Amino acid sequence: MFKKILIANRGEIALRVIRTCREMGIKTVAVYSTADAESLHVRFADEAVCIGPAPSKESYLKIPNIIAAAEITNADAIHPGYGFLSENANFSRICSEHGIKFIGASAEMIDKMGDKATAKATMKAAGVPTVPGSEGILESYEEAEKLAKEMTYPVMLKATAGGGGKGMRAVWKQEDLKKAWDSARQEAAASFGNDGMYMEKLIEEPRHIEIQVVGDQFGKACHLSERDCSVQRRHQKLTEETPSPFMTDELREKMGAAAVKAAEYIRYEGAGTIEFLVDKHRNFYFMEMNTRIQVEHPITEQVIDYDLIREQILVASGVPISGKNYYPKLHSIECRINAEDPYNDFRPSPGKITTLHAPGGHGVRLDTHVYSDYMIPPNYDSMIAKLITTAQTREEAINKMKRALDEFVIEGIKTTIPFHRQLMDEPDYVAGNYTTKFMEDFEMKPKKAE
Questions:
Q1: pLDDT tens-digit map of 172-227
Q2: Which position among 292, 336, 365, 394 bears the catalytic label?
Q3: How many CA atoms lie within 13 A of 437 on its CB side?
Q4: Phi and psi angles of residue 147, each rounded to the nearest 5 degrees, phi first
Q5: Which 3-state string (H, E, C) describes 255-313?
Q6: Potential cystine with 131: which of 68, 86, 115, 200 (Cβ 3.0-4.6 Å)?
Q7: Which fold would CATH assign to domain 132-201?
Q8: Cα–Cα–Cα angle for 87, 276, 348, nearest 5°?
Q9: 3-state secondary structure of 49
């Protein structure tokens, strides 16, 4: 087992990893930028090393600084969390070259699954259903035009190196294709330095349902059931739940089996997520694989009583998995609390938290790194907390979430708490009747007079 793990991340996920390490008797090293000197993960770790100034590219994305921090503290493993370098094949490779265990996928695995066109071809070969579309990257606009005609509209253009919705364009008719092609390529080149595009049939009324998998070093994998992540804004998830209200026992078995087949086909090691699009007829199609822990992993932990971070560490240290699949015994919902103003187009709201009162009680979990007088820096993602409620039924979990959101007080900045509180009363959400298009028609109700 590892003696000391460096956490190459910040915020709530760094704190989350530190807590599990402490329970396992493993020493921890926090790295931080100058903007995060007062962050809780710095205080809670056994050691902390400043790796640079506030901008990510000069700190949390600077591989030499992180490796140097691991070497001077004698860390024998690095946990990358999510975001930043968690799916960077070069970082995984460099860790290996320095004799430091990367708690995540190998460089080869990230290369194979990180590029969406390559991942799709791999999944096709594994016998996992994929969305009809181009065979690899489109060579020209003319090829895109020809394929779109063959598949029939609507179609979706996607950047092969994409993420976060960048380089994606839905095209409903032929006359819009050229404009979409040009703008998607420009955005992809600016965001990823790669303007390669591929095309898929646009799935109508889709739900975004992912399957959590864990694979060990011996080629064995298991699944931990699904999470429904369909409530999204600009391809960013806002809330997630498990089990999915759209799921049937038969579909869960089929999707779980497909996810395990995918993981075992590529001999995947670690915790990962196979993401699917599910259409209104409950046909499912492979979308992408995330070769890391997900933001929304706590809801899976809650419904099957399982520490996914602990499992990541065990698998990375060479412990085999049991191989059994897990199914939800309870219902759990996560609301991502962001420092954003939902009344002003979700504009970021960094600044100082003047008052914080955290909700509590049975079935309420709060993963956060913020506290009263904490200064939220403007340099990073705006998520500041994850509020999770768990109960016997979906209805109870929603009622518990309403109560917890009413208790949750954050002053000094704007947050998405009012958005989530309104969401929990929306008839379509309460009925489980939502798709990835749900937010297109959503409007915040006016603030109540103080």
A1: 999 999 999 999 999 999 888 899 999 999 988 999 999 999 999 999 999 999 99
A2: 292
A3: 8
A4: -65, -40
A5: HHHHHHHHHHHCCCCEEEEEEEEECCCCCEEEEEEECCCCCCHHHHHHHHCCCHHHHHH
A6: 200
A7: Dna Ligase; domain 1 (3.30.1490)
A8: 60
A9: strand
Mean pLDDT of the region 322-344: 96
Q: Helix/strand/coil (H, E, C) string of 324-347?
A: CCCCCCCEEEEEEEECEECCCCCE
Long-range contact set of residues 227-230: C-beta below 8 Å, sequence gap at least 24: 227/294, 227/296, 227/299, 227/300, 229/296, 230/206, 230/434, 230/435, 230/436, 230/438
Contact between 186 and 195 under an 8 Å Cβ cutoff? The reply is yes
Strand-pair category, 331-338 with 355-357: unpaired
Note whether 201 and 155 are within 8 A (CB).
Answer: yes
Taking only the tens place, the pLDDT of each residue in 76-115 is 999 999 999 999 999 999 999 999 999 999 999 998 887 7
- Could you tell me which residues are beta bridge partners of residue 241? 228, 333
CATH class in words for 207-441: alpha beta
SS (H, E, C) 150-186: HHCCCEEEEECCCCCCCCCEEECCHHHHHHHHHHHHH
* Residue 10 annotated among the catalytic residues of the structure: no
Extract the runs of DSSP E, i.e. beta strands, from 104-258. Answer: 155-159, 169-171, 197-201, 207-215, 221-233, 236-242
**Within a 13 Å sphere around the CA of 266, how many CA atoms are in the beta-carbon half?**
34
Query: Mean per-residue pLDDT for 114-131?
Result: 88
Of 279, 397, 261, the C-alpha closest to 325 is 261
In this structure, are strands 331-338 and 236-242 parallel, antiparallel, or unpaired?
antiparallel
Read off the pLDDT of each residue in 279-298 and give the average, rounded to a whole number.
94
Cα angle: 44, vertex 46, 49; to 5 degrees: 95
Write out pLDDT tens, residues 394-419.
999 999 999 999 999 999 999 999 99
Q: Give the single-character DSSP code of 99.
A: T
Beta-carbon contacts of 247 under 8 Å, excluding residues fewer than 6 positions away, are: 209, 226, 228
Look at residue 425 and tell me whether its pLDDT is greater than 70. yes
Statement: the pTM of the whole predicted model exceeds 0.85 = yes
Residue keyed to tokens 């992809």: 188
Structure confidence at residue 193 (pLDDT) = 87
Residue 165: predicted pLDDT: 80
Predicted local confidence at residue 323, as pLDDT: 87
Query: For the chain, which residues make up each domain, given as ranges?
Result: 4-103, 132-201, 207-441
Instruction: Please check whether residue 326 is in contact with residue 223, taking contact to mean a CB–CB distance below 8 angstroms.
Output: yes
Looking at the domain that runs over 4-103, which CATH code has it been given? 3.40.50.20
Average pLDDT over residues 353-359: 98
